[in-house]
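Newbie here. two chains, one complex. Structure please?
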Amino acid sequence: MQIKKKSKVNVAIPTASMPDIIFMLLIFFMVATVIRQYSGLQVKLPDAQKIQKIEGSKRHVMTIWVGEGNQIVCNDVTIKKMSELRQVVYEKRANDPQLKIALKIEKTTDMGMVNDVHQELRKASALSVYYFAVPGGEF
Amino acid sequence: MLLGKKKESNVEIPSASLSDIVFLLLIFFLVTTSIDTEKGLDLVLPPPGDTEIKIPKENLANMLVNASGQVLLDGEIIKVRQISRIIREKITANPNLVISLKTDKETEYDIYIHVLDQLKKAEAKKISLAEPDKE
């Protein structure tokens, strides 16, 4: 009989701290979220193995897309002339000296184009670049 | 006296719906957050201006990549996947080695990334980008 009584012990999960946990999660996601996302261009990235994450916060990253037909999009600005790129990057860098450039370039682009982008970035003093790539195996 | 009693009525803010509101906010941020897993190869471009730094010939490895993806390293044609091994050997022999990477105007970006990847694999820290020749 005593055994039966024991099974009637309170088995409810304590929910008193649940709001605290939810608050913690909420604050984490609020801090981690960077709302401004740009859709950019659809590009096929090359593959590489020794890729690494961009150091530091995503807030200091400016993305430049170079798509098919050598169209350039820089965050949300479509670049029509090469010299515009320098202007856009320079203004951005003046506001944020830690600026890093993420380059998402279509893999069939030729190096003449990539080099033109390099030259513009150098003139805008944005020297830290990341060539975005997808993880890939041996080629 | 009646007025005084009225002041003592219940003035607490109802907190029963607080957790509902917090849940809603949580779900909103959960949905909008995109934890990016995108990664890339990092490189530091040379500062602007034509500052020519003289590098002694013995500390320089010339690497040329042509339009069809052939790699020429110090006068020898090699395959892309051989780069990391050869460069690693060269770097152990000479830690001050600077790799000068020069591409053709029509080289594909894909090949350039593969070459850069190989150099990263060989732990080459000093990579110099040479401009493609202007015609």
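Moderator note: The mean pLDDT of chain B is 79. Chain B touches chain A through 44 residues (CB under 8 Å). Thread marked as resolved.
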